[in-house]
Amino acid sequence: MSDFFKLAYELISQIIYFLVEWIVSIFGGFVRLFITGWAAYTSIFTTYFQNFSWPVRILAILLAILLTAIPITLCVLIIRRIVNHIRLKVDHEDNTVLLKEIGRLNRQVLGLMDEKNKILAMKVNTMGGVGKIPYMGASALMDDTLPTFENVVGGGAVPVAAGAGIDTLSDGTGGEVGTALEVAGGNLNGNVNIKASANIGDDTIASAASAAATAAAQAQVQAEEKSRITANRFAKLSLVDAKYADYEPPIYDNDITLKEFAENYRTFAASQLHLYYTPEIVRRFVAGMAASKILILEGISGTGKTSLPYSFSRYLTNPCTMVSVQPSFRDRTELLGYFNEFSKRFNETEFLRALYEAGYRPDPSFIVLDEMNIARIEYYFAEMLSVLEMPSADEWKLDLVPTAWPGDPVMLEGGKINVPTSLWFVGTANNDDSTFTITDKVYDRAIPIELNERAAPFECPPQPSCNVTCEHLQEMFLAAKQKYPISDATQQKLDKMDAYLQTRFKLAFGNRIIKQMNDFVPVYIACGGTELGAMDYILARKVFKKFESMNVSFVRDEIKDLIVYLEKTFGRSKMTDSKQYLQRIQNFY
Predict the structure, then answer these.
(1) Is 276 found in the same domain as 226?
(2) Angstrom distance (rounded) from CA 411 to CA 360
(3) Which domain does 323 fall in, by range?
(4) b vs e for 556-577, b when ≥16 Cβ sit within 10 Å of the residue's Cβ?
(5) Which helix (H) or strand (E) holds 44?
(6) Is 28 among the domain residues?
(7) Residue 286 falls within a domain, yes or no?
(8) Same domain (yes/no): 283, 393
(9) Residue 304 located in a structural domain
(10) Last residue of one domain, picked from the residues 450, 474, 504
């Protein structure tokens, strides 16, 4: 036996020896072929290459390139093959995990469908009728054959009238699904089963069951349609409709002038609310209403920025709506709300309610965006900025929902809400580290008003509020434009100023600024101001303000010349606001 083990040992060891020698020879041949053989290849190539003529040398070089490219290509292909094999193996493992996840999700879907079928069966059973349709289960979704009527009702009796149909709900409130198909479990009158009581074919039974299911589906659709018709998606807006169903407007004073309008407000704020403003601020506010639907009140804290529109709305007996802007405001839904597809209700905001209510009132309305630059205005207020730029007020519409429902509020047209011309948006802005810079896009469309100083208190008699329609206010604005247009002399000076700014600073007035100027200046004069005072303010806040976005350090000397130009053109004692603003910018840089 020991001789046998010696034989096996010697045979196996010899085989292993030859196998290792074969592997070593292959590896050595590979090394000699691709690594150590380069010296021999080079020696042979050099020996023959020196004696060749130039045409033969070119052929020799091409041969050398070809012989070098073949092994390199083979190595690249082998490496790519190995890499692809590894990737396929990894992808196979990932696909296995993905298939398992798909299987898990399919099981969840079947579970949800199973639960939905249970709910539908419960709904059908609560609709009345002699018999009950039992729950089929999730297995019915995967059966290849139609379940028999006996499996559905458990072998009950089914009297079916000839040519019977299915009657739908008579009133939509839970009546019988149908009278033609009556299902009775067990037996009828205690001793009659389905097979003995009637000879009904399988096709008749199947069609009757199908008709019952169709009737149940139709009943559910009708119930959903009735719910949709009677649904009230806009709870707050519907309350506004109810509020103004029997609204009786007050008696309006349509004989008041703009000067009286401005002076009476200042007296009202002081006597009724103990809020004090200079006549200059009041004139700018009223003239700003004539020039734009957006007013921006800037300045240091505590100067009455929020109190100004609040007291003005109290003066008009139409209290404003205060909207506190949050840093999280990113889009229009923060102001207008959004439609909840799950609850089928519109999440309304106070901004939307005030916007809708303003359409009912003939007097001016205000929405105050408090701390409006604590978030980026051009994000959450972008759509409103674009809508207010439309030339016709009939185009001032905002989409709320895609389609109209019968139960929607009265003043919504096709799911759209109108922005009334009697509404103004007033934003308050602080300039500190917690706020964003107001961009030129917003400034160009708005009238900025700075409140950096508190007015001194003064004694005055009590002043009642004022009831005036927005129509009369617009008529006063139009009359002021006709009575106090910008004079030809001032217009020529503005044209020269425009050419000067274009030449020195590449800065122009723009059509929007010119239009606002033509609206602002006459109303400012009608409120008791002067033409140059209004022009001074518009130039400082609408034109020279653009220097803040320029690299003023390179044009500091040009600003000095601009101040000199203002003094030569308008007089040394005039345009004080513009000169102070330019000096402040110059010192800042």
Answers:
(1) no
(2) 9
(3) 258-450
(4) eeebeebbebbeeebeeebbeb
(5) helix 38-49
(6) yes
(7) yes
(8) yes
(9) yes
(10) 450
Helices 556-570 and 576-588: angle between axes, nearest 10 degrees: 170
Q: Are strands 397-399 and 365-370 parallel, antiparallel or unpaired?
A: unpaired
416 and 530 both lie in a single domain: no
Rg (CA), the chain: 44
User: 400 and 348 in contact (C-beta within 8 Å)?
Assistant: no
Instruction: Let me know: does 311 contact 466? Beta carbons within 8 Å.
Output: no
Give Cα separations from 231 to 175, 297, 300, 409 (angstroms): 22, 41, 48, 11
pTM, to two decimals = 0.62
Q: Both tokens of residue 454?
A: 């508190």
Query: Distance between CA 455 and CA 272 in Å, rounded?
Result: 16
CATH of the domain at 371: 3.40.50.300
Residues 382 and 501 occupy one common structural domain: no
Residue 509 corresponds to which tokens in the numbers above?
């007035």
Task: Kindly give, in sequence order, each residue whose CB lies less than 8 Å from that of residue 106, ignoring residues fewer than 6 positions away.
Answer: none
CB distance 470 to 279 below 8 Å? no
> Quick one: 501 and 419 in the same domain?
no
Judge whether 187 and 193 are in contact, CB under 8 Å: yes
475 found inside a domain: no
Spell out the per-residue pLDDT of the chain, length 589, in tens: 677 777 777 788 888 888 888 888 887 777 777 777 777 777 787 778 777 788 887 888 888 888 888 878 888 888 888 888 787 776 666 677 777 888 888 888 888 888 888 777 776 665 544 444 444 444 444 444 444 444 544 444 444 333 333 343 334 444 433 333 343 334 434 443 434 344 445 566 667 667 777 777 777 777 666 555 556 899 999 999 999 998 888 899 888 999 999 999 999 999 999 999 999 999 999 999 999 999 999 988 888 899 999 999 999 999 999 999 999 999 999 999 999 988 889 999 999 999 999 999 999 999 999 999 999 999 999 999 999 999 888 999 999 999 889 889 999 998 999 999 999 999 999 877 778 888 888 999 999 999 888 888 988 999 999 999 999 999 999 999 999 999 999 999 988 888 888 888 888 788 889 999 999 999 999 999 999 999 999 998 888 888 777 765 666 777 888 888 888 888 888 888 888 888 887 776 5
Q: Tell me: do 321 and 444 sit in the same domain.
A: yes
DSSP 84-137: HHHHHHHHHHHHHHHHHHHHHHHHHHHHHHHHHHHHHHHHHHTT--SS-PPP--
Two tokens at 90? 């990894």
DSSP labels for 392-446? Answer: SGGG-EEE-SSS--TTS-TT-BTTEEE--TTEEEEEEE--STTSPPPPHHHHHHS
Backbone angles phi, psi at 364, to 5 degrees: -60, 140
Closest CA to 235 of 402, 400, 411, 353: 353
Q: Are residues 189 and 311 in the same domain?
A: no
